[in-house]
Write a structure and sequence with these properties.
Elements lengths: L8 H20 L2 E2 L8 E6 L3 E6 L6 E2 L3 H5 L10 H4 L6 H17 L8 H4 L11 H14 L18 H6 L1 H4 L2 H6 L4
Antiparallel strand pairs: 1-4, 2-3
Helix pairs in contact: 1-4
């Protein structure tokens, strides 16, 4: 998936839903991936309309119950959550943060940070999400209402970050008929 090409919102919704299914599966076995990013998401086309998403590279994943592993700061900086960057450690919702960055990137073709992100090493200082006007201009109504920022995928507070079950019920996913009409969800 590592591409700078934007994806239609309808296709992005379907791909994002499958990414969420993959993250759920990883969490069900007691792991936190810690490196969700486009280059770790494989898209395989099966026939004309069906695609399959696979999340790869579990090398940096850790056991949810291992204090030592959770505290290690690892992953790709642009996709690291605030709690990981600040040294507090990874949580399952840290993967949700990374999926929000991936979603933003899929739909806009750019990361949700201003210039200087690498220098500052802390996304909240430079994330566009601190500017609601910018987020709605860039993402439009579907992703903006998904609560990508203050109450959603890129919420700074991990305890308030949106849960996968709520994301799957959101209209960005449910109102998008593209995946239901053109893809087999099995």
């Amino acid at each position: 998936m590592a591409t700078k090409k934007k994806i239609q919102k309808s296709k992005g919704s379907y791909i994002f839903l499958q990414i969420l299914f993959g993250i759920e599966a990883i969490h069900r076995v007691g792991l936190i991936h810690r490196d969700i990013k486009p280059s770790n998401i494989l898209i395989k086309r099966k026939g004309k309309w069906e695609i399959k998403i696979k999340i790869i590279d579990l090398e940096l994943s850790c056991d949810c119950n291992s204090e030592d592993e959770i505290k290690q700061k690892c992953g790709t900086r642009e996709y690291m959550s605030p709690e990981v960057l600040s040294g507090k450690g990874a949580l399952k919702v840290s993967d949700i943060w990374a999926s929000g960055v991936v979603l933003f990137y899929m739909i806009t073709g750019v990361l949700p940070y201003k210039e200087g992100f690498r220098k500052n090493h802390y996304p909240q200082a430079v994330i566009w999400g601190n500017n609601n006007q910018a987020s709605s201009l860039i993402l439009g109504e579907y992703v903006d209402t998904l609560g990508v920022y203050q109450k959603g995928l890129l919420c700074e507070d991990p305890e308030k970050r949106i849960a996968i079950d709520k994301i799957k019920k959101h209209k960005f996913i449910t109102q998008n008929k593209f995946h239901f009409n053109n893809f087999n969800l099995k």
